[in-house]
Amino acid sequence: MESKPQPSANSLPPKPWERAGSSSGPAPFKPPSGGSTSDVVEASGTARPGEIVSSSDKNAIVNRNSLGRPVPTRPWEQNYGNSGIGGYGSTMNYNSGYGSGLNGSYGGLGGNYGGLGGNYGGLGGTYGGGTYGGGMYRGGYGGGLYGSSGMYGGGMYNSGFGGPMGGYGMGGPFGSQDPNDPNGAPPSPPGFWISVLRVMQGVVNFFGRISILVDQNTQAFHMFMTALLQLFDRSGVLYGELARFVLRLLGIKTKARKVQHMGPNGFPLPGNSNSHVNQNYIEAPKSAPSGSWDNVWENDTSN
Amino acid sequence: MPVFKTPFNGYSVRFSPFYENRIAVATAQNFGILGNGRVHVLDLSPTPGAPITELAAFDTADGVYDLAWSESHDSILVAAIGDGSVKLYDLALPPTSNPIRSFHEHTREVHSADYNPVRRDSFLTSSWDDTVKLWTLDRPTSVRTFKEHAYCVYSAAWNPRHSDVFASASGDCTVRIWDVREPGSTMNIPAHEFEILACDWNKYDDCVIATASVDKSINVWDVRSYRVPISVLNGHGYAVKKLRFSPHRQNLMVSCSYDMTVCLWDYMVDDALVSRYDHHTEFAVGVDMSVLVEGLIASTGWDELVYVWQHGTDPSAP
Questions:
Q1: Whole-model pTM over 0.95
Q2: Does the beta carbon of A219 lie under 8 angstroms from any beta carbon of chain B?
């Protein structure tokens, strides 16, 4: 880089564009006023020194949105008041962009699972990171609040987030107080709940920033989901199977039991009266039970 | 050309309007999602190939999302911080005396800062609390708050030829043009179908403004007839994060994107993409063009690297 003499302090070199005239016609602006900015604004009567915009002001602003387009709700402004911890899952809406096809079903999985993650924080920690969409948002609340950390390790950019979030949970809403202790100290001051609220604020902040990022970057998010889906495709894991596996881990009985009525590869076990349903499997074993090829395409129980 | 490694992820870079070899970089820990921030002031060596040296660094309690150099004092910087504060730093003072001011009026993350280049006594900050605030150094609080946007305001930029006019770009898919003497916005341009992340004025035509959006495009508008854009620049693969018109050439602008590239555009010609630089290995989120040296570009990104290079050369060449 060539070395030019430095301008002396506090003398701003002229801007390159100040030497040139404006190239187009008259601008639709009022001519500039003289004087300092604060004087100009105060003279115009529009000055509002130190105004802090409250949320009630904001509602009025929304009504002024002349586009008539719906504006997304900010993650930190959603109403969490009436729901329990698990309710975070139900009010977050970050699967909405994936409402169709495979992505939809996959996002749905993350959503469901994440909702449960609110109640089962530890497991949320294990599985929340991998799902990235619904799972990360929703499972994330469970993990953070109940002290399970490391859930963000699986995502693209999330290594290290688990630590501090887990740290919030360590205090534990249920750790230090025993409401059933008759001889206990007088009720602790509301500072505890204020601190809980503060933690919640931090959590909401955290997810607000992630969601802003996801909002700004929906395309990259889509790419990540596609890659993840391809990975699952290659390893041969069916989404439904995955969902059942996860739900079984959580101790929830699902239709998985029905699968157990079937033999290997979905073939009917001998003597099962329900075995004639749903036999249209693409892959049939080579050593099929007797007469199987005759009734592959129909519900014929005559064998 | 020289490269500087920052400990945190880069968010914004700005050339000093006073010194041709000085830049400031805004960084945030953990990609700006959680953690601290740091403002770096860097000096480029006048000899080619020599490393970039750090002149000063200031730590903050939350990520720093944007910076603006003062146009009236060569040592003063404005920083937009993730905790909603706006901080002023004076390089001439020792680190213990900094920041010299800390304003806490925004209720959400402050996402951009821009210093008035015409009147040189005021600056704007825009925030996720949907507002833009106007500040002057001679007042202890903000002078005015502009609150018409219905979603986060990602960027606010002064008109470089008019001391009272600025534009703001918001996630509500509009760009609004404001006059600080008017009670409301003077224009409301529904510039994109998706969130608008940045806007900037043409330095040579005070009626031309460009907007960068999540829809991967950059639109160029004439504020006198904004029904249709005068140009649409396609070429980025993901959301366009920032853009800046050239201080030296009327037609040129530079942009950076989540597709990890920095692009230079000439919006007046059909084949608008002049060059594409893919030196960043993570999201490229900060870019600037030097006012004092024609063709000098700086960029930063989540790969924690700051590049400074002359247009036409390879940014990552040693």
A1: no
A2: yes
